[in-house]
Amino acid sequence: MPKTYVIDLRKGQAYFRAMFYDDNLSFPRIDTFVYIGRDTEGVHQFQDAASYADRRCGVNVNEIEIYRFADDDLSEVVDKEHLIDWLQDEHSTKSVGPTYEYREID
Length: 106
Hints:
- The protein is an alpha+beta fold.
- It has one domain.
- It is 18% helix and 42% strand.
- The chain contains two helices and seven strands, in the order E-E-E-E-H-E-E-H-E.
- Strands 5-4-3-2-6 form a five-stranded antiparallel sheet. Strands 1-7 form a two-stranded parallel ribbon.
- A hairpin with a 5-residue loop joins strand 3 and strand 4.
- The protein is globular and about 45 Å long.
């Protein structure tokens, strides 16, 4: 039975989409996002970290990418604390990868 972790979603905090480029699970892909809250439809929104950081530093940003995840689609999103665990679990033949529960924190 896989482990279940709770991940608190806090506005302005970094999160990572962890997945693989290939079907053999040899090449992990990690994207960095910043949680910006839910939209009017209740879908979780994340902004790409580069444009988020640039705007905080006063840089005029022309392109902002927003990534939207419904509650059921958050399974690839982890926080910093669980990113290393994800990599270790996904590359271990001894365990089944964990599952995550998400709580939105204001």
